[in-house]
Design goal:
This protein has 3 domains: 13-320, no CATH class; 321-436, no CATH class; 445-500, Arc Repressor Mutant, subunit A, CATH 1.10.10. The chain has helices at 71-83, 181-198, 223-230, 248-267, 313-321, 327-338, 342-349, 352-362, 367-384, 396-407, 413-426, 430-436, 445-458, 460-468, 474-483, 490-500; strands at 13-15, 20-32, 91-92, 95-98, 108-111, 121-128, 131-144, 148-150, 159-161, 168-174, 210-219, 240-245, 275-280, 285-291, 301-302, 309-310. Strand 6 (121-128) and strand 7 (131-144) form a beta hairpin. The protein has 505 residues and is α+β, with helices and mostly antiparallel strands. The two termini are 45 Å apart. The chain is built from 16 helices and 16 strands. 38% of the residues lie in helices and 19% in strands.
Length: 505
């Protein structure tokens, strides 16, 4: 999508009992920073450790323990901001957000409200070729994660695991620019892709390393345009927040349900109450969790244990200089350099490891051929067996070797598939396998001619049919290749069959 023009998708319209309604969605993504240590302590962030084994004294809020900022976490937040084309704030500050959670022992969360580390940016979310949604990023701030309460180990007791307490999170807050459930899922997917390319968050939703809070409201057609023109939220409906979503499918289902719930209330003459809700995937519905607090409810104030965070422009520039090629740029390059379709380039750049693999295979070779082999043969086989590209038994060098043998005319496409199977299951150098197992295609015109003559002589009826309908000449080609054990060069056979049957010209 880099430097390409695009048009915005149509907003999702839901027909109510009395009128049409449009969806308005904003999202807050909590992305766990990829770092070995927590935001304010040296405790490990490793997932799956024994409960309460990764807890420093500052995480446990022991008296007299003071937080110390993890510079690498700050660097990761800056890198994320640069990846989202956002403004980097050289001065930011941490605040205390006061609320009681049993799994946050200090009784407050250290966050950034008034002075976040990253300001406004954007994400371009492609929905189809030439159709994309520009989602504005309002801010990214750093904050601590809370621990985990466990309620299913005992009928009368709850347990608390503090391993996650103090882990660094980036809260990425979007403007209400998303207009449908599919767009919401696509936005999370795109953001997750960018974070993984940057190496700032692994995007693992199953482990809770990426979670989404979804703000949903509905309005009548035309109202959203008034909001965009004025940036006045009064034109939009009252929003409800759906908390802690960790599945693309559930995000879409929750939005769909919540929108219809709000429409039903409004059409009955009621008022939507701003609140925080939870989605129950078993029942397929959202339910009220708590009233939506405002900033004053949390009694924010600057954290007295942490000085304002000041970073230098030269340090930011150094991070910028080391930025990797991001998905949109990589996709544009694949289309320009390798002649790929929009679809193929999208598939190959979806994951960073897949893009790296393809890049290595395609270098110095025909891009379209490389893409076909990577997507159709390799990805297809890996998916069938439940593996991803990092577990591929066929290296990029090996697959490139197979493609080189096809290009050189050493093997046919059919033989190549047999060779791929051998390399996939047994390993080895493709060229050596072809030599050792006698898999080279037959290009000896004398041998091919003898086979063609024999099959033509044995099938006079088929000859007459082919002369009447030249398309049927392919039957002879198939028989010759079959007779050669699949080794005859198809192009040579085709030409010779056409010549013998007098079908040329």
């Amino acid at each position: 999508m880099l430097d390409l023009t695009y048009s915005a998708p149509e907003p999702r319209v839901i027909a109510g009992a009395k009128a049409d309604w449009e969806l308005v969605i904003g999202m807050e993504i909590h992305a766990q920073v990829s770092s070995n240590a927590k935001l304010f302590s040296g405790a490990s962030t490793a997932f799956g450790s024994e409960p309460n084994s990764n807890v420093a004294m500052v995480d446990a809020a022991m008296p007299g323990m003071l937080p110390v900022i993890n510079e690498f976490c700050v660097e990761q937040a800056v890198r994320t901001g640069l990846g989202l084309k956002a403004k980097i704030n050289l001065m930011s500050a941490f605040d205390r957000k006061n609320y009681f959670y049993p799994d946050l022992p200090q009784g407050y969360q250290i966050s950034q409200l008034y002075h976040p580390i990253v300001g406004e940016g954007e994400v371009i979310v492609e929905m189809s070729p030439g159709v994309a949604r520009r989602v504005r990023i309002e801010r990214i701030h750093l904050e601590q994660d809370a621990g985990k309460s466990i309620h299913d180990m005992d009928p009368t007791l709850s347990f608390v695991d503090f391993n996650r307490t103090g882990v660094a999170l980036m809260e990425i807050v979007s403007r209400p620019d998303i207009r449908g459930p599919e767009e919401a899922a696509a936005y999370v997917t795109k953001l997750r892709q960018i974070l993984r390319y940057l190496g700032t968050c692994d995007g693992n939703m199953q482990n809770g390393n990426l979670r989404a809070d979804v703000n949903v409201s509905v309005c009548r057609p035309g109202q959203y345009e008034k909001y965009q023109a004025t940036q006045n939220f009064s034109h939009l409906g009252t929003r409800c927040e759906i908390k802690n979503m960790n599945s693309m499918r559930f995000i879409q289902q929750a939005i769909e349900y919540e929108a219809r719930r709000q429409i039903a209330i409004l059409e009955d003459g009621g008022t939507v109450v701003q609140e925080t809700r939870l989605y129950d995937p078993d029942k397929g519905e959202t339910r009220s969790m708590r009233s939506k607090e405002e900033a004053h409810d949390y009694r924010y104030f600057p954290d007295p244990d942490l000085l304002p965070l000041e970073i230098e422009q030269a340090w930011v520039d150094g991070i910028r200089a080391g930025m990797p090629e991001l998905p949109d740029a990589k996709k544009a390059r694949f289309m320009a350099d390798y002649g790929l379709t929009d679809y193929d380039a999208s598939v190959l750049t979806a994951e960073l490891d897949s893009a790296r693999y393809f890049d290595e295979v395609a270098k110095g070779r025909d891009g379209k051929t490389a893409a076909n082999w990577v997507i159709n043969e390799l990805f297809g086989r890996l998916k069938k067996e439940g593996h991803d590209i990092t577990e591929s038994p066929v290296s990029a060098v090996q697959l490139g070797g197979i493609i080189d043998l096809i290009a050189a005319g050493t093997i046919s496409g059919k033989i190549a598939k047999d060779l791929f199977e051998i390399v996939y299951t047994e390993g080895g150098d493709p060229a050596e396998i072809v030599e050792a197992r006698g898999m080279k295609q037959v290009t000896d015109t004398g041998a091919i001619e003898a086979a063609v003559d024999e099959i033509i002589a044995a099938n006079p009826e088929q000859v007459e049919k082919a002369k009447a309908n030249p398309k049927l000449a392919g039957w002879f080609t198939g028989q010759v290749i079959k007779a050669s054990g699949g080794k005859a060069n198809p192009a040579v056979v085709n030409a010779m069959v056409a010549q013998k049957l007098g079908l040329q010209g």
